[in-house]
Write the C-alpha cells for this entry.
Amino acid sequence: MKKVMSALRFVFRNGETWTVRREHIGDLWIKQVTTSFGRIGDDDFQEIHPCESLKIEIARESDSVNSNDINKGGLEAGMFARVSKFQDIEMMDILYRDRLNGEKRHSVEKDRIYFPYKAVDTDGHDNSYQSSQEREDTLFIVIDPERTVEEVYPQLSATHS
C-alpha cells in the first residue's frame, strides 16, 4: 500500500482551516522537515514536524471554503483575500489517501507540519515570516524567515514595475 498526498489543510492561528486539493496546487516546496518530540504544559507528549520554510502556488479553484472546514472569514471574502489580509497560517496537515493495486481509498492519515513563526506585534496573530501575493488566477504564499514572496517568485514584482 502506498500513501498518496490528496490535499493540504492549512490551519490558522484562530483555529480556522482551509483545505486545498492536490489538483489545485502548482509549485510546492516544504524545506527541511524535521521530527521533534515533546509537550506543552500538561498536554500529552506528541511528535511534531517543524519545517524551515514553505513556498506554494494555489489555483483560483481553491478560493472557496470546503464544507468540512470551519471558517467564517473565508465564507465572506474568499480564501485568497483572507490569506492576503491576515498573515496567520500556523501549520498545515498533509492529508493522504491509500493506493492499493491502483485503487484509491481515502485514509485519515496525516502529517502535521509547523511553520516558522515570529509575531509581528504583541497580539501575536500575524507572522512576520509569511508573505503572499495574488496574480491572475494564482495565490503565491511564502513562509520563510529570510525571503519574501517577491524574492522567491521574482516574476511577481517584475509585472508590477
